[in-house]
Design a protein that fits this description.
The chain has eight helices and eleven strands. It is of the alpha+beta class.
Length: 254
């Protein structure tokens, strides 16, 4: 919660100045609680990974209106398979079969679901691993995966691209090796709950899209949120994620 506040409080303050509306940051403790709060009408605007978005859209009618731009891939991002650099047993995706895997979280796009799709496309099913574990805690989970692999607790891990750089000042990145990267998929998305006043949504969207990375003050807001910009988005932009969810059997929940 503290990390999320630090990243986004400048953006929230900016939106209040630009729109004249009052915003309150909400910090659900889990994927399921976040969905529940959307269903109850307690969250108007959601900033989420694309798998969460397609679930919220299917269950409660959320609709994408803006997409995040990041330094890695623009509005696209992907996952990475990492192992210790001195691990001779893992050189390719196929070598991960039978090994111990630590992933970020069951709901993590780059840290689990995108790599899961890559493994399935390579003929490797979840049952083919010796173990699949998820990073403990509610924050810093990407970093926890990296550190667990570095410590040798697991044979390999999966994180979103860019996660390694978060630890560049704490570890020697040459001690780790990127085995493979997943295909590129849509990245994080701003979506609105069904029934939100269209005029309010238009006002909020216009303010977000007005952020200019060439403007020093706007750039400060974007950099705090780890973004390089924000662009318009629509629901159909996330159809490739829906197709992956279908292939992984994750689109059956009502």
């Amino acid at each position: 919660h503290r990390a999320s506040h630090q990243r986004h409080h400048l953006l929230v303050a900016y939106l209040e100045r630009q729109t004249g509306l009052k915003f309150r940051q909400v910090f659900p403790d889990s994927f399921d609680r976040h969905l529940e709060m959307i269903g109850q009408g307690h969250i108007d605007i959601t900033y989420s990974n694309p798998f969460f978005y397609i679930t919220a859209a299917r269950r409660y009618g959320n609709r994408a209106f803006a997409a995040a731009l990041e330094s890695y891939g623009g509005r696209l991002f992907r996952g990475q398979i990492i192992c210790r650099a001195d691990n001779p047993a893992i050189r390719t995706v196929a070598d991960c079969r039978g090994k111990r895997w630590i992933a970020v979280a069951p709901s993590s796009s780059g840290g689990y679901l995108y790599p899961l799709g890559l493994f399935r496309d390579s003929g490797i099913e979840p049952a083919d691993f010796a173990e699949i574990a998820f990073a403990p805690g509610v924050a810093g989970k990407q970093e926890r995966v990296v550190m667990a692999v570095l410590a040798g607790k697991y044979d390999f891990g999966t994180v979103r691209e860019g996660a390694l750089d978060l630890l560049a000042d704490r570890i020697d990145l040459s001690d780790l090796r990127v085995v493979a990267a997943t295909p590129w998929y849509p990245g994080w998305v701003f979506s609105a709950r069904a029934g939100l006043d269209p005029d309010l949504l238009q006002t909020i969207a216009a303010a977000l899209l007005k952020l200019d990375p060439g403007n020093p003050e706007d750039r400060k807001i974007l950099e705090a949120a780890h973004l390089t910009g924000i662009v318009a988005a629509r629901d159909g932009d996330y159809d490739s994620v829906r197709e992956l969810a279908r292939r992984l059997g994750l689109d059956q929940t009502p």
